[in-house]
Amino acid sequence: MQFLYGEDGMDGAKVETERLGIWNPTKFMWESELSVDGDLKQMEIKQLLKDQETLKLTGKGAGILPVPVRRLILQARKRFRAEVITDTDYIIKSVYGLLDRIKISNDDEMEINGTLFLKIHIRMQLASKMVIETHKMSKQALDYIIGAIEHRFENAKATPGEMVGVLCAQSLGKCLPKKASLKRV
């Protein structure tokens, strides 16, 4: 039997609190809002609006995340000083490709619990408008950030077979007596 560490499968020593910025649609939308050219940009804006609603419903202003996205953006901006990327399609495809590769397990419920706020945070910080106008990133900086996010996410996962001792005993201790009593009834 294989258990995932915690409710999200992340190693507690490799996560940190990061403020989830509330995305202001009026501040970051293109001039023509949802009538913008391009299916990818429309899809990105619609997803960001859904993310905004999710954050409002959950009341989350900060989250425990395995990747310090804002710090990585600052590092990349200092390290790569080149011409600002303007290809919104490249930005969106790169970010959504990264989001597709960020997985904890094949269990859908575990996947949602473990990556929902991280993916929202990545989408908001690396939205095409943010990358171009706020962060003023180059293509090399964006590629560096995407690689660093993927690397840090993989390193933050709890190693299979890692001894968790008391945590596991407490978790099993809560559910096993209930199962045993249900069998007797």
Question: Your description of this structure?
Answer:
This protein is mainly alpha-helical and 185 residues long. It has one domain (12-184). Helix content is 60%, strand content 4%. The chain has helices spanning 25-28, 39-58, 69-79, 88-101, 108-125, 128-134, 139-156, 166-184, and strands at 16-19, 62-65. A two-stranded antiparallel ribbon has the order 1-2. It is globular. Mean pLDDT is 75; it is low at 29-35.
Poorly predicted regions are 29-35
Structural class: mainly alpha
> So what's the overall shape?
globular
Provide the spatial order of strands within the biggest beta sheet. Answer: 1-2
The value of Rg in angstroms is 19 Å
- Strand content is under 5%
Number of strands: 2
The count of helical stretches stands at 8
Distance between the termini: 26 Å
Averaged pLDDT, please?
Answer: 75
| Main beta sheet | 2 strands, antiparallel
Helix content: 55-70%
* Total tally of structural domains: 1
* SSE order, one letter for each helix or strand: EHHEHHHHHH
